[in-house]
Amino acid sequence: MTAPRFPRFAARACLSAVGAASLAVLAVFPATANHSWSTYHWSRTGPLSIRLGDNVGTAWDAHLQAAAVDWSRAAALDTVVASGGKDPVACAPTYGRVEVCNASYGATGWLGLGQVWSSGGHVVQGTAKLNDTYFSQVAYNTPAWRRSVMCQEIGHTLGLDHQDVDMSNRNLGSCMDYSRDPSGTKGTNGTLNNERANQHDLDQLALIYNHLDSTQLTSTKPTSNTSTARAPRAPAAAPPSRGIGHVRSEWGRSVATDRRGRPRVFVRDLGGDTQVTTFVIWAEDAAPEHWQDGHGH
Length: 297
Known about the structure:
Blueprint: H1 8-28, E1 49-55, H2 58-71, E2 78-83, E3 98-103, E4 110-119, E5 122-131, H3 132-135, H4 143-157, H5 199-208, E6 253-257, E7 263-271, E8 274-282
Parallel strand pairs: 1-2, 1-3, 3-5
Antiparallel strand pairs: 4-5, 4-8, 6-7, 7-8
């Protein structure tokens, strides 16, 4: 049987419609937004509100509040500071939200950790840790460093990777960009500051959350909807309540490196299609033993 011919004018109309739709998508979601991490994201059936557990001291409170306001500029979600109550040293995760902690975690080599538990491709909990062993030092005890690292670690728990992993080039104006000078005032990385999310970060979140899922964790629904929200389905393998530790030996395999060749992302499989991803920002003088297998101060 001969296949029916497709009229030329109809083909042109179809192509024009496809082209117009493509341009409309590009106008809303710029093609340059490309720093999601894998495909993981918080599942949602509607508005998404991520609680940030406040387990930080007074030196960090303002920076946590600022980061929550900043990430809430994303059209796809809100981040809301909630009461904590966790031991900040252990910083154990809580199912359905992100715990934010600061403590003197020791000479581990890292300034901050963003740790994300996912099950079936969906985030189920996370932690953001700030290491006061380094933030008590003159080099890092600045508002710019505190704001930048706080913003970055929370950004990882929302589904973002880094925009750039070279600490020596010009700042992009994003906390998801590595820098030796997040303030942009010392002449080493240009004049933009890397203390908050930029439009590129917000565009990427729009791409990550541009669809609806079939389920949503009750704790991630806005307060006004919690009375009608369904209870979350438990993950295939329940994430460990004690969390993942502060040293390389607990993070699993390295899957990405920075411009200097230092591993910056690790994945540990927990079984049952559940894993934890650890994002690391290293101190400038971190030594190789900090990221080599088996290291554990």
